[in-house]
């Protein structure tokens, strides 16, 4: 994370990376009055469950309801208190994006990288050929839990075995778009919204990640790249998605999955609501490849999964540094 050294980072120039803002995309250049809203494919409640050691997560992608929504593999809305967390564990074949909503989370991996996330910060980890790390909560002065979102993004097959990479994206690096007379604010973590563009590369697979807050009476029509898969996860309040007869009111802790066809996602909050609605809106380029997953290993064939298990258990082919390694933050867990 914050102390990542260049020796542990793969040279991105070795691999072709598709642009975050697709050139000449008709969905991004249509006049608002000609844009076609995306319909809702499904919306469902994310049920709280236990994960890690003592942590609570609301998982909405990576469940029987929504599995392998390419390029997205998993979405967890997590809440972890001191004494709980995600101690030493491996990954191979995916990127993980951790977006902190409140509190703080420390990170440490077997390559010697360490860092901390604060509210509004994003940690980008590309596991590539292999990483072992720990993610543990901070002790907040008021005793509150640490809350955030973790999204797993699949890697293109030809990038599955690159060297692991880390980057922290601080909240100060994230611009905000303000619209509808100040009733709508969009933190543009990556992508573009109403004249504000941010092209931070948060995964080798192109992804847009927007944090949207709509006050009562506010409305947004957000353009998204054509044919990308997209979803919204509602963090608070009641938001109305869609238009006309297809408009649907969605409450807190729901995942709203949109159809691929269409140009925009339309959302608003009724003037009668007592509080704003907040949700993350995420879109990504689907990958034309098979997904074979075994826990933290995500590859494209069963044999590659067997190889990942052999490599991890035998401390080889990317996992050499896992032998005899223990994170310091993992040792601090309260038992």
UniProtKB/TrEMBL annotation:
Domain Pirin N-terminal, first and last residues per copy: 55-153
Binding site for Fe cation: 89, 91, 133, 135
Keywords, sorted A to Z: Iron, Metal-binding
SUPFAM superfamilies: RmlC-like cupins (SSF51182)
GO molecular function terms attached to this record: metal ion binding
Cofactors: Fe cation
Cofactor annotation remark: Binds 1 Fe cation per subunit.
Domain Pirin C-terminal: 209-316
Pfam families reported for this sequence: Pirin, Pirin_C
PANTHER family per record: PIRIN, PIRIN-RELATED
Membership in a protein family: Belongs to the pirin family.
The protein's name: Pirin-like protein
Species whose genome carries this gene: Aulographum hederae CBS 113979
Taxonomic classification: Eukaryota, Fungi, Dikarya, Ascomycota, Pezizomycotina
């Amino acid at each position: 994370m914050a102390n990542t050294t260049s020796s542990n980072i793969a040279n991105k120039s070795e691999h072709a990376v598709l642009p975050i803002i697709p050139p000449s995309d008709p969905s991004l250049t249509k006049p608002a009055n000609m844009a076609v809203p995306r319909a809702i494919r499904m919306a469902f409640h994310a049920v709280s469950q236990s994960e890690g050691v003592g942590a609570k997560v609301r998982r909405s992608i990576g469940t029987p309801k929504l599995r392998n929504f390419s390029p997205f593999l998993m979405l967890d809305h997590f809440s972890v208190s001191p004494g709980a967390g995600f101690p030493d564990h491996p990954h191979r074949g995916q990127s993980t994006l951790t977006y902190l909503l409140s509190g703080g989370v420390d990170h440490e991996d077997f390559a010697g990288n360490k860092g901390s996330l604060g509210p509004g910060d994003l940690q980008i980890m590309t596991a590539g050929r292999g990483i072992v790390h720990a993610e543990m909560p901070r002790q907040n002065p008021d005793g509150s839990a640490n809350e955030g979102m973790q999204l797993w993004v699949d890697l293109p097959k030809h990038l599955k075995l690159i060297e692991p990479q880390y980057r922290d994206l601080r909240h100060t690096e994230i611009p905000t778009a303000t619209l509808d007379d100040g009733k709508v604010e969009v933190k543009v973590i990556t992508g573009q919204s109403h004249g504000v563009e941010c092209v931070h590369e948060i995964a080798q697979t192109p992804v847009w990640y927007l944090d949207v807050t709509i006050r009562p009476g506010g409305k947004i029509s957000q353009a998204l790249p054509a044919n990308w898969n997209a979803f919204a996860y509602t963090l608070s309040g009641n938001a109305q998605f869609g238009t006309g007869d297809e408009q649907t009111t969605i409450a807190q802790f729901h995942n709203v999955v949109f159809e691929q066809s269409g140009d925009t996602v339309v959302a608003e909050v009724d003037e009668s609501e007592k509080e704003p609605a907040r949700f993350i809106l995420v879109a990504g380029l689907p990958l034309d490849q098979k997904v074979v997953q075994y826990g933290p290993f995500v590859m494209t064939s069963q044999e590659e999964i067997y190889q990942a298990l052999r490599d991890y258990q035998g401390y080889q082919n990317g996992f050499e540094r896992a032998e005899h390694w223990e994170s310091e933050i993992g040792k601090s867990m309260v038992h």
